């Protein structure tokens, strides 16, 4: 709530400095289907198996959307009325993520009991502890890498940014998240393909040749643990749980589900052949269980129109948004994801949606002209 209020205050401050909200919407279907998804979630309070849980998750998701609305509008108004500014979305995201990751790296040494989580019988230590799911923290690191790579591309504080990226990869390694590691490597390969800078390509490829074998052996293969080979090949160990959800849980409430962020009548879904779970660890199955086939149809069209909007953007903006999409989409197949319980993936996805639904409107009203005449007379004269 504090950040929501802060984003609104920044938005109003920019307007007071001499900007008018002359933006007009585009890609209406992307935001329209997202609002339809939230509308169905709100309606599901009527049949939710636990209205308290559904309401809490719905209001948190809606709150972040409002935050993103004012946050992205502020960036657009800066671009339109203060074209010399140096604020960039990828720089904000990259550095904000780095600060969060730095807290975890420091906390790992000062308070390992809270910042480190031991799994697989205490044999594997994963960064995140009891504060954040290690896989989500790994996804967060990947998004930070995606943002800071653009600072490298524009030669902005190149050495400092390089150190930040190395620390983000170190944190990603410590999370032990296979999916997040694959996402980060895909981001780098995506940037190699897009850049024309031969020296940068050579430096990145050299770094990957040195680092990737170690990461693959220690994170993906888990030091050659033969008992987990099937888990590695399937990229998840949750296939029996997903089969149970679809075969046993879905037939009970196939059309409208169990309610927003609910996957069963009880708090846990228990399959005959798998462990019990409160969430599906797959954002698309999560939608299927909590909003049924109707919800899946809505989010499918929402994603189609979101990607269509991204590919319609100019080159640099499209590259940035696709780079952000890579880690959050991979995370969506194995964790909370963009349509799951409140998490960072939802925040980044909502930022992407908002970033493609506004465009410059050359026509301004008489009241807006009067505002500019008072605040920014030089714009009216020009």
Tell me the span between the first and last alpha carbons: 40 Å
Count of DSSP H/I helices: 16
| Share of helical residues | 55-70%
Tell me the radius of gyration: 22 Å
Tell me about the largest β-sheet. 2 strands, antiparallel
Q: What structural class is derived from the secondary structure elements?
A: mainly alpha
Order of helix and strand elements from N to C terminus: HEHHHHEEHHHHHHHHHEHH
Q: How many domains is the backbone divided into?
A: 1
Tell me the strand percentage band.
under 5%
The shape, in one word, is globular
Strand order of the largest sheet: 1-4
Q: Which regions contain 5 or more consecutive residues with pLDDT less than 50?
A: none
Q: What's this entry about, in short?
A:
This protein is mainly alpha-helical and 382 residues long. It has helices spanning 2-16, 28-43, 51-81, 89-110, 112-115, 134-153, 158-175, 178-194, 198-220, 229-234, 239-249, 283-311, 315-334, 344-356, 366-375, 377-381, and strands spanning 24-25, 116-119, 124-127, 358-359. It contains 16 helices and 4 strands.
Q: How would you portray this structure in words?
A:
- The protein is mainly α and 382 residues long.
- It has one domain (27-222, 236-381).
- It is built from 16 helices and four strands.
- The chain has helices at residues 2-16, 28-43, 51-81, 89-110, 112-115, 134-153, 158-175, 178-194, 198-220, 229-234, 239-249, 283-311, 315-334, 344-356, 366-375, 377-381; strands at 24-25, 116-119, 124-127, 358-359.
- The strands form two sheets. It has a two-stranded antiparallel sheet.
- Helix 2 (28-43) packs antiparallel against helix 12 and helix 8 packs antiparallel against helix 9.
- The longest helix is centred in the first third of the chain and has 31 residues, at 51-81.
């Amino acid at each position: 709530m504090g950040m929501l209020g802060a984003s609104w205050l920044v938005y109003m401050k920019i307007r007071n400095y001499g900007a008018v909200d002359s933006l007009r919407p585009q890609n209406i279907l992307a935001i329209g289907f997202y609002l339809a998804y939230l509308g169905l979630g709100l309606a599901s309070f009527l049949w939710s198996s636990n209205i308290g849980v559904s309401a809490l998750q719905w209001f948190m998701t809606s709150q972040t959307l409002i935050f993103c609305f004012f946050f992205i509008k502020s960036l657009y108004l800066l671009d339109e009325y203060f074209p010399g500014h140096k604020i960039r979305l990828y720089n904000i995201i990259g550095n904000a993520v780095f600060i969060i990751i730095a807290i975890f790296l420091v906390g790992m040494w000062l308070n390992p009991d809270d910042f480190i989580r031991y799994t697989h019988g205490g044999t594997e230590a994963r960064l995140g502890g009891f504060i954040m799911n290690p896989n989500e923290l790994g996804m967060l690191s990947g998004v930070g890498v995606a943002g800071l790579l653009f600072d490298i591309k524009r030669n902005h504080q190149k050495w400092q940014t390089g150190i930040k990226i190395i620390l983000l990869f170190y944190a990603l390694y410590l999370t032990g998240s296979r999916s997040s590691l694959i996402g980060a490597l895909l981001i780098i390969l995506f940037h190699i393909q897009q850049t024309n800078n031969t020296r940068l390509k050579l430096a990145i490829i050299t770094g990957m040749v040195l680092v990737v074998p170690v990461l693959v052996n220690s994170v993906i293969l888990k030091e050659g643990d033969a008992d987990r080979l099937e888990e590695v090949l399937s990229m998840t160990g949750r296939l029996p749980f997903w089969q149970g959800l679809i075969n046993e849980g879905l037939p009970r409430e196939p059309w409208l589900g169990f309610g927003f962020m609910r996957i069963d009548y009880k708090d846990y879904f228990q399959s005959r052949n798998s462990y019990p779970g409160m969430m599906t660890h797959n954002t698309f199955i999560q939608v299927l269980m909590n909003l049924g086939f109707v919800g899946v149809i809505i989010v499918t069209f929402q994603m189609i129109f979101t990607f269509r909007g991204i590919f319609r953007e100019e080159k640099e903006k499209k590259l940035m948004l696709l780079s952000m999409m890579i880690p959050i989409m991979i995370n969506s197949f194995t964790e909370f994801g963009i349509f799951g319980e409140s998490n960072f993936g939802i925040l980044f996805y909502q930022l992407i949606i908002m970033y493609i639904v506004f465009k410059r409107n050359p026509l301004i009203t008489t009241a807006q002209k009067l505002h500019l005449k008072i605040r920014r007379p030089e714009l009216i004269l020009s």
